[in-house]
Amino acid sequence: MYKMKYTVLFLFILTLFLACEPISPENISLGGEWKLKYDPDQVGLREGWFGNDVDRTDWEMVAVPGNWPDIDHDGFAWYATEIKARSYAAGYKWALVFDSVDDNAVIWLDGRLFEKHNGYGIKFFSDIGDKISDGKPHQLVVRIEDTGGGGGINGEVYLQPYLEEIELVRSEASTQTAPEAPEWAKNATIYEIFVRSHSMARSFRAVRADLNRIKKLGIDLIWLMPIHPIGVKNHKFDVGAPYAVQDYYKTNPRFGTLEDFQDLVQQTHDRDMKLILDMVLNHTAWDNPLIDEHPEWYTKDELGEIVSPNADWWDTADLNYDNPELRKWMIDMLVWWIKETGVDGFRFDVAELVPNDFWLEAKAACKAANPEIFFLAEGARPDLHLSGHDMTYSWNIWNLVTKAAQGEARVSQIKQSYEDEAYQYPKNALRMRFTENHDKTRSRSYIGDADLNKTAWAFIALMKGNPLIYAGQEVGAKEQVDIHLDPVIYWSRADRELEKSMGEILALRKAWITPESNFEIILADDEKQIIAYRHGSLLAFFNFSDTDFEFSAEGMDSVLYGAIKRDNAGRLTLPAKGFGVIK
Asked: Domain residues for 539?
């Protein structure tokens, strides 16, 4: 009798619990069809397209995630959808999560400004709290700003219930340890060169003639963008993009012969520097011999026609890594370059689009040819470090540091983003730090102040990670080197004082910082826009404002570098837009 009574009571309580419909801690996908409207004249803000009462009957339906259908549209477009969520278990809050947008986003919820985000391919989230837990539909509107190529919401969008914010950034990869990178790479400074734009000669020999200057700058590793012949069929603009590879076993005849390249590698090694090649394994040019010899190695549509990776990359044909013969061919090709030319590794284009298990096979084969081989992935996914890649792109720091220099980001965001890396990336992961590269506008052109531009680069050059200089950056080049056209760096307009300063900063790094040096951001004052960190025995201060900053530093020995001044009372002054290093 008692047993029966307790059973009935338990079923009654369970019925009440289910009636409240608490969620289990699972994500709610917001993928599917959204409404889209292009905004070429930028009238959406003025006309209030973010409002709940907007008539959207003329907006087209598009799939999210994905790029917007009009590949020729650069600029602004608006997305809208309805979201709703049930009540959730006690203690949980909702976060709206975007795995990636292309490139920037402003978000409204129920007609109210909710979040702003800058940066392509960077996961971000916003705390919604209990704003949508009433089970009713709520209007979500996103304005995307695209700065080139196909734009859109190109990553998953979802609601994630969470207890602690760190759950939103923590990845499974962060609990693991990545294989050790080569010792020489751990504190290496990197210099990116596009041979076609590096000089009027556009040749390996011209790059070789510049090696002494590059070495003096403080460079350890030269990364050459693709050196292969460029496809002619379907090529873009004047001369085509180097990422449309016509033949993996040849060099671009404009640059020189294979022997010229081998000599460049040897001359680089003679100066105690390393050299890596940019390799494009996700796709080929349309006139690559592999298309005729092995059409089965390519991705095809429902009609059996070979397709491009996406609409914007119409000058290339997509490779299908389900084919084991393709995998073997690519790995053999990489090993050939190691053995025949002595290159020290590779930078892999769009590494995230090639399967991780292939990278593991490739790294093992390349290490058998050279145990000190190095892989740099164009990508930021943490799991790349567990699949053979030694280093990934630090898009998060690029975005926030350059935005801080433009007055569009808080320095506390930089601190938070760096600290989040510990919850995202495996131990031993190397991160490439930069303020520009060939995919982005020259920093000197959008950071209008020369001092702020140098301060932004000094920040990434002295922090934890591996700093990059994109050829021409060190002399203040403003012209974007469009890889589809045929420009050249104007070395005659060089800012030699900037070059000298950047070399001194790298020398400071080499003298005082090792891969084992502890790194900690110790100050991030949003009101004053001052950020400071300790790296080994160095203290570095950066002023992203237009006001001088006065402070004191206990235990200071001396000012090593920069614009910091000290008065007779021991007070320190960091000038506006400047930086300084003390020990």
From this structure: 519-582
